[in-house]
Amino acid sequence: MAAQAFFTEHRRLWLALCSVFFLVASWELVLTYVFPVDPFFFTKPSLIATAFREQLQGSKLWHDLAVSSQAFIWGFAFAVIVGIPVGLVMGWRRRVEYSLDPFLTALYASPLVALAPLFIIVFGVGVLGKAALVFLLAVFPFIFNTFAGVKSTDALLINVIRSFGGNEKDLYLKVILPSTIPYIVAGARLAIGRGLVGIIVGEFYAASEGIGFAISQAGDTYRLPDMFVGIIILSLIAIILTELMRRLELTVAPWRASDEVR
Amino acid sequence: MKPAKIFAEHESLILGTGFIVLLLVIWESIPFWYTLPKGMALFFTTPSRIAAAFYELLLDGTIEKHFYISAVAFLAGLGLSIIVGLPLGLVMGRSATLEHLLDPYVTAANATPRIVFLPLLILWFGIGIWSKILIVFAGAVFPLLINTYVGVKNVNRVLVNVVRSFGANEWQVMKIVVLPNSVPYIIAGLRLAIGRAILGVVVGEFFGSSHGLGYMIASAATNYKVDVVFVGVAIFMALSVILTLAVKQLESRLASWRPEAAKSF
């Protein structure tokens, strides 16, 4: 009885676990017994697990991750430093909004990653090229979400500050910034996804180290288990970062939880 | 009418285009007031040179040839993701069991930049059109699936119950209530999917490819033909902006009867 109650209560978790377990098990069994695996083109979970263990013990994986995250952090930090002030000013100054909005919207809507080859060739295969690419992709969610946040600031609060003699600085620090923070965090979640695309494409295109390079090199040399290890690690990082941002979003703005679409 | 009044009436239009024109003029005039060092000049181009390169490539049919290949990959991938994403989103929204079974994969795949699968797809499907179609598919299918699912989930329970009470079966509930309710969400998903699909085309053609606009950009960059790179980038920009605006138009038309527009993110 208790077991059944437990099962109904955590039905979601149980079904998810069963589904993943079943998929992995059937992948392994089918490739071992039904179609013997050709290691050049396909691989199975047991081989991936072995490769995973080896990579975790070796130093190359950690080095690759350090290289990639360095470029990511630089690009992302600059995106925050540039994007938030631009968004704030755009939201508060009508003429700035009118001037910048069409230009930035066009850039936001277009696949700027098309500039990746040029960036890598101009700035080099090192940290700078990839960081510039991450910046280029990640800055727009910050600009536009900050902008939307400022736009949705409660006019009543602004009037209150004005009535009590607050100046421009009070307005920004006491009303606009706090009510914009939830939007900025939501923007950060989008920016993470775009920034990761920048890192990966930059490293696929030309690099000598980094996690994206490790994946494409494993592919070029038909080391499928290693390639899957890279893909899994990258997925895990993406999932963890996205989930962290979602939690942060719920913490800073619990009232927005109902708006959340996954 | 006084100029001041014209300006006040069309302020946003004037300032918006004015800023873009100003940027282009500054960009164009850089060589006149500053001599670039030789290393930099190699990577530098101006809008007029880009326009000239565009005209030339258009005349000799290069753009047409590459555009055709890219368009096929884009349309096939997007079509495939609609064929797979919509039904899957519908059933995931209607069946809790199926939702729980598929949820881990959808969540994980949606959080991961799908571009990482590109080397794998090239390995499996070669450097032909199929690896591009599938990377476009991988990018575009999740926004469609998730938005359809959310649209189905947000359906008004009362309406479903009314239709049920009058003896409708699951298929009729789907047709009469669920699908019409999900349309704005699906369109919003389509807008996101188009962006992802174009990203897939660009990056898919960067690597292991010999045709397509993405290839044109990558090979021009390798040969330091910077103006050709910008021609490719400009084409992609124009296409994205046009497609996004078109879908937005459709979105606002379809959603006009709703009190609240569909959410996109």
How would the blueprint of this fold be written?
The complex is a heterodimer of chains A (262) and B (265).
Chain A: H1 2-9, H2 11-34, H3 45-57, H4 60-92, H5 94-109, H6 116-123, H7 127-151, H8 155-163, H9 168-205, H10 211-220, H11 224-252
Helix pairs in contact in A: 3-11, 4-5, 4-7, 4-9, 4-10, 6-7, 7-9, 8-9, 9-10, 9-11, 10-11
Chain B: H1 3-9, H2 11-33, H3 38-41, H4 47-59, H5 62-94, H6 96-111, H7 118-125, H8 129-153, H9 157-165, H10 170-206, H11 213-222, H12 226-254
Helix pairs in contact in B: 4-12, 5-6, 5-8, 5-10, 5-11, 7-8, 8-10, 9-10, 10-11, 10-12, 11-12
Protein model, in words:
The complex is a heterodimer of chains A (262) and B (265). With 262 residues, chain A is mostly helical. Chain A has a single domain (51-255), classed as MetI-like fold (Orthogonal Bundle), CATH 1.10.3720. Chain A has helices at residues 2-9, 11-34, 45-57, 60-92, 94-109, 116-123, 127-151, 155-163, 168-205, 211-220, 224-252. In chain A, helix 3 crosses helix 11. Chain A starts with a helix and ends in a 10-residue tail after the last helix. Chain B has helices spanning 3-9, 11-33, 38-41, 47-59, 62-94, 96-111, 118-125, 129-153, 157-165, 170-206, 213-222, 226-254. Helix content of chain B is 81%, strand content 0%. In chain B, helix 5 (62-94) packs parallel to helix 8. Chain B is mainly alpha-helical and 265 residues long. Chain B starts with a helix and ends in an 11-residue tail after the last helix. At the A-B interface, helix 2, helix 5, helix 6, helix 9 and helix 10 of A face helix 2, helix 6, helix 7, helix 8 and helix 10 of B.
